[in-house]
């Protein structure tokens, strides 16, 4: 695991390190609307001086302090795109960003979130095609992309996801 270390004290040598998972989550925070990240009780709890993001609202960690859930539905982010840095959350099992006012496309790099069991990006303004790379999410059981402006056909690769219940044809 990689760490970013920052000196936080001028009088004593005190170093705090935020885990790589925390750094990935900060990419979401830095892309969020400045006004809403200050006024949001969820986002204002995201303190980069913590060594891990495990105490942040909307975040659940494993006993090894790896992020396994990012669930902040109905939190106004006002993002023009989803940060691809979220793809580095290699232990992530649940990603719920429904109704968070996200536009842009779904990053193909989300196909590298191979531990993902639930992906909910519903009720946003996402556009463009559904990335075929999501077909690599072999553990995916729930996929919610409704109420967006997605275009094109559902990628054939999603039909190979045996854990994802698909409606009969």
TrEMBL record:
Domain Leucine-rich repeat-containing N-terminal plant-type residue range list: 19-62
InterPro entries according to UniProt: Leu-rich_rpt, LRR_dom_sf, LRR_N_plant-typ
GO MF, one annotated term: kinase activity
Pfam families xrefs: LRR_8, LRRNT_2
Primary site of residence: membrane
Subcellular location: Membrane
GO CC terms: membrane
Residues that span the membrane, as ranges: none
SUPFAM superfamilies: L domain-like (SSF52058)
Keyword hit for Isomerase: no
Residues of the signal peptide: 1-17
Keywords noted in UniProt: Kinase, Leucine-rich repeat, Membrane, Receptor, Repeat, Signal, Transferase
Protein name: LRR receptor-like serine/threonine-protein kinase
The organism of origin for this protein: Sesamum angolense
């Amino acid at each position: 695991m990689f760490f970013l270390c920052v000196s936080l004290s001028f009088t004593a040598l005190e170093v705090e390190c935020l885990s790589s998972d925390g750094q990935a989550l900060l990419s979401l925070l830095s892309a969020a609307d400045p006004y809403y990240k200050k006024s949001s009780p969820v986002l204002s709890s995201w303190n980069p001086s913590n060594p891990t993001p495990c105490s942040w609202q909307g975040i659940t960690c494993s006993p090894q302090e790896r992020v396994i859930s990012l669930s902040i539905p109905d939190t106004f982010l006002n993002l023009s795109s989803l940060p691809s840095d979220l793809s580095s959350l290699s232990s992530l099992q649940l990603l719920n960003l429904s109704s968070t006012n996200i536009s842009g496309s779904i990053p193909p790099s989300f196909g590298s979130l191979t531990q993902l069991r639930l992906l909910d990006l519903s009720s946003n303004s996402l556009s463009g095609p559904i990335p075929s790379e999501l077909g690599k999410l072999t553990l995916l059981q729930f996929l919610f992309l409704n109420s967006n402006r997605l275009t094109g056909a559902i990628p054939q690769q999603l039909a190979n996801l045996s854990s994802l219940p698909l409606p009969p044809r």
